[in-house]
Amino acid sequence: MECLVGGLYELGSDVGTAKVLMLPPVVQRSSTEATSRHRFCTGKPKMQVLKKRRRDSVTSETRHRTEERRRNLCSVLVVIVLLPLVSAKSNQRHNNSNNRPPKFVLDDLEDGVGGGGGGRGGGDGGGDIVVRLKEGAATPPGSRILRLRAFDPDGDHLTFGVLGDRGSDGFLRIENHPDGDKADVFLNRVLDAETQSEFQAVLTLTDGRLGQGNFITRSLLLLVEDDNDNAPVFLPFPSAVSEREHSTTFPKVLLTLKATDRDRGIFGQVVYSLLSDDGGPFTVRTTSDGRGLVSVVGELDYEKKSVYELVVVASDQAGLGGGSRVNSATAAILIKVLDVSDRPPEFVSAPPVTRVPEDVERYSEVRRTFCICHLLGFFAHTVN
Q: Where on the phi/psi map is residue 312: left (φ > 0), alpha (ψ -120 to 50), or beta?
């Protein structure tokens, strides 16, 4: 449909659109031009001139009325074309204003097959979703760790996601269900409590009617529970220690040991014990800062035993938590007993009287005697 009012209005193929095509304006003859034409017709009879003027006047009036009708008709058409578009936008705003937002259903969360569980924020009032997972092989990548549920009062189809689609460096993957009210959360990486013990992400929920970039959000906190997967390791220490015999200070610390364990909690707490004291008076004590003190608690006697071999064990405390596996490490230490001059030499045979001739030469041997030197541990002899 089209009409001329100094131009052409053309309806587009889509509802709510209109095009304006500019055309040359309708030519109207001025009174001057009519007068000029009259001048050229002076030779005609007067009656013919009057009829010509009457026809020209009627034609001009007819053209004027036709233009008015077309102008009014185009205005009506433009209003009719634009009304559907304005009405559609008004209805969209009305629908969005009446939309009721969806909600996370926190009381109906399901744990995944990869283990876990733990406390969560409950009800519709908010709170974090907290999930606890075992590290390592207990929760491998690809495990479903959580099933999310939500409710929409308007019955709209819901979409779950992770804010920024990162999931705290990509450790999560979310798969929405076709029914539109739940989604599964999967693990994307290997968990190691010694490297990172917790992850945080922001879960999103939308019904598609909240507006661009608007979501219902809920915080997710993933706690990685340590497994006893590391054994204690001794820091460097001397393999041999010397101690003098007949010490009178007890207990006396001979050596300090230190072992570390990369696990956390009781799995990383180290205690020390003696696996073997080789029959000697030795003990080991665990300090509050995780060190082991090897001490002598009795008298050492070189003449009885000069070397002791101790075996010290460093163990974690997994047994305190009911765990079936306790990791440990051992350290071997030599204790050397130093002899001291605590006993004089003893003569084996020494006659009380020795007779010497009067003419014996100077530096001549007159008698041979034997004695025991306990410091050196062998027999010695002297010549008098």
A: beta
